[in-house]
Amino acid sequence: MESKQKPVRRKTRGKVQAARRSASMTSILNHAETVFAIKGFNASFKEVAQEAGVDTALLRYYFGNKSKLFKAVFQRRAPKINDLRLKAMAEYRKTCNGEMTLEGIIDAFVRPSLEMSIKDKGWRNYMAIVAYVNSSGGELDQLMSETFDHVSQELISDMRKILVDASDQELYWGYHFLTGAFTFSLGQTGRIDILSQGEVSSKDMAAIADRLPVFIAAGVRAICQGNMKNITT
Asked: Which CATH architecture fits 2-74?
């Protein structure tokens, strides 16, 4: 009878250990997210360990090195936000009755991220990291591409359907300016708070979500519809 119970006990003990490991890793990722949101990749392993209240040896045991830890933080929430954005874009296509607008498809592309930033501090920290990575180069630039490019290509494809006479060159420039304004807004830098003396806030994601698609659509439309001569002269 006793021998039959041993496998069950080992299985239960294994589940408990796995749950503890998962909880420990989640706690470290949460704290690392906070530190990276403030300092970016310049944050040290030691700073993350201090924030998480653990030894650096535990960070290395779970994640290997800082690059792998940063990548784990960056990619942890990505599937959720990518899914929300792709669903929003698909829903917009279904409800626009075949008459897509730049404003509509850009809104579907940016609003989920901005709304998740309103949800809680963890999402705000994550979006700040996305903003940091998008303004970086090298290894971090590659990380941005492998995580988000498939969603961006969906947007560019819809832009082609709306601006049928636009060149790919101008469409890509339009996306370039869009992603710059979008991720800068996700960064919540506080710059506009100072310039406006508190009239507006860089943390007001609802206000940004209502205005950004209108602003970007007008610019994209201008550069893609043969207005470049008027702009530059």
From this structure: Orthogonal Bundle (1.10)
